[in-house]
Write a structure and sequence with these properties.
The chain is mainly α and 148 residues long. The protein has ten helices and four strands. It is elongated and about 55 Å long.
Length: 148
């Protein structure tokens, strides 16, 4: 029995709604459970309803990332903000956007990779988690700045 059948049997989806839900949660139980907690069993979730539910309840669903964000220092946040502004950056491009030495930059970048916040692929760095990136970009769009 799948995790969805086991834990979410009373939540009903259309096919495109489930596809969107799965794309948002990536099958990660923490995200599934957080999202599930804000869903209504009397509703049938299609693509738009899943999107609306996510954006309406984003802070509750992403509470773990909000806590992680608040634990970062200003230099780490600066690196993440630069990656949120761009899809991905090389090491040199990212360093050029910061105001720290190479050694300090490497330390913070390594910390972010170790925490699972930053990924390195094809010689570029990016934000690892799409939901985290979505939250950051949403905060900037709504409030004009990234979270403090």
């Amino acid at each position: 029995m799948s995790y969805f059948d086991e834990c979410m049997s009373e939540i009903k989806f259309t096919e495109d709604g489930f596809d969107r839900f799965y794309a948002c949660t990536r099958g990660i139980p923490l995200y599934i459970n957080s999202f599930y907690n804000v869903m209504d069993s009397s509703q049938i979730y299609d693509l738009e309803t899943v999107k609306n539910t996510f954006f309406t309840n984003m802070e509750q669903i992403l509470i773990i990332w909000i806590k992680v964000w608040s634990s970062l220092n200003d230099n780490e946040k600066n690196i993440v903000k630069n990656l949120a502004d761009e899809e991905s950056l090389t090491w040199s491009e990212l360093l050029d956007k910061t105001n720290v030495s190479r050694a300090t930059f490497n330390k913070y970048l390594t910390n972010l990779k170790d925490k699972g916040i930053v990924a390195y692929e094809n010689q570029k760095y990016s934000i690892e988690d799409k939901m985290f990136r979505t939250w950051l970009n949403h905060e900037k769009e709504v409030y004009g700045i990234y979270p403090l």
